Amino acid sequence: MDEDSKFTIIKNKELKNAIIMALADDITRRILDSTISQSKTVEQIIAEKKIPHTSAYRKVEWLLSKQLLFIEKIKRNKIKESRFLLARFISIIIEYQHGLIEIRILLNKNINEMKKKCK
């Protein structure tokens, strides 16, 4: 199987726009970058990427609503709940040609493994 066949072509216009907007924004790009290989809490992302708290929480909620982030697990204790976030993809290829945009993503294998465990 060649590398291109592992990519998924995004056809949904709303999702295409969300991906482009996420990559154009410095903070959302840093959040995605931080969560590609390992799930992290918002607090861990803030510390690692030096993102202001309010911006981090607002951008994470937006990324979750657009399904660009995935909640891998939730840990609860008596005081608080921590959500561990993971990017849905590990690579994105965007092509723009004559007014047409094609976006291909390589899905995060950690998410695919999680789905298999849940079945």
Please describe the structure with a list of short key phrases separated by commas or semicolons.
globular; 119 residues; Arc Repressor Mutant, subunit A; 29% strand; alpha+beta; two-stranded antiparallel sheet; 3-stranded antiparallel sheet
Structure description:
The chain is an alpha+beta fold and 119 residues long. The chain has a single domain (7-118), classed as Orthogonal Bundle (Arc Repressor Mutant, subunit A). Helix content is 44%, strand content 29%. The chain has five helices and five strands; from the N terminus they run βααααββββα. It has a three-stranded antiparallel beta sheet with strand order 1-5-4. It has a two-stranded antiparallel ribbon with strand order 2-3. Strand 4 (89-97) and strand 5 (100-107) form a beta hairpin. Mean pLDDT is 89; it is low at 114-119.
SSE diagram, text form:
Elements: E1 8-10, H1 13-24, H2 26-34, H3 42-49, H4 53-65, E2 69-76, E3 81-87, E4 89-97, E5 100-107, H5 109-118
Antiparallel strand pairs: 1-5, 2-3, 4-5
Helix pairs in contact: 3-4
